[in-house]
Amino acid sequence: MQLRPMTQAELDAMLPVLKREYAEDELKSGRRTPEAVHAGIEELFARLLPAGVDSPGQLLFSGVDDGGAVVGHVWIALPDEQRPQAWVYDIQVDPAHRRRGHARAMLLAAEQVLLARGIDRLGLNVFGHNPGARALYEGLGYATTSVQMSKELA
């Protein structure tokens, strides 16, 4: 697996899907109301990616398999004053390429990029309704640092 810088065209194609999926995850988690999710999503992405693929503090990569096919992407925020570690904002494998170890390979490749930059810690968030992702991350050595819980009251 190789990571290469994402093109602006790739980001433009990815963003509508990413925004929709993020909104769905937020709603499933119960952390926000539908109104709050949809009102804030454009502002959030405008703040995080003001210059698209050239946004400061962000690394956007496309994952390329050994045959040269783009199989997915990974988006990582670099450490800053508010967060002392790099942070995975998103990792996606295209549906046609799933269940082949590409997400694992992209994360391992991203770790090497970060280590080459002198960054020695990478964090991420996983929604509780995504046990497959949690198993992947735990298998790669990520440890739980916080747990949020919620109960719907009837």
SSE layout:
Layout: E1 2-5, H1 8-29, H2 34-48, E2 58-64, E3 70-77, E4 86-93, H3 102-116, E5 122-124, H4 131-139
Parallel strand pairs: 4-5
Antiparallel strand pairs: 1-2, 2-3, 3-4
Summarize the structure.
The chain has 154 residues and is an alpha+beta fold.
As a whole number of angstroms, the C-alpha radius of gyration is 16 Å
For the termini, the CA-CA separation is: 48 Å
Beta fraction: 15-25%
SSE pattern: EHHEEEHEH
- Helical content stands at 25-40%
Structural class by sheet pairing and helices: alpha+beta
Roughly what is the average pLDDT, rounded to an integer? 92
Examine the secondary-structure arrangement and name the CATH architecture: 3-Layer(aba) Sandwich
Give a short account of the largest sheet: 5 strands, mixed
* Unreliable parts: none
Kindly describe this structure.
The chain is of the alpha+beta class. The protein has a single domain (about 1-140), classed as Aminopeptidase (3-Layer(aba) Sandwich). Helix content is about 40%, strand content about 20%. The chain contains four helices and five strands, in the order βααβββαβα. Strands 1-2-3-4-5 form a five-stranded mixed β-sheet, with helices on both faces. Strand 2 and strand 3 (about 70-75) form a beta hairpin. Helix 1 (about 10-30) runs antiparallel to helix 2 (about 35-50). The longest helix is centred in the N-terminal third of the chain and has 22 residues, at about 10-30. The model has no long low-confidence stretch (mean pLDDT about 90).
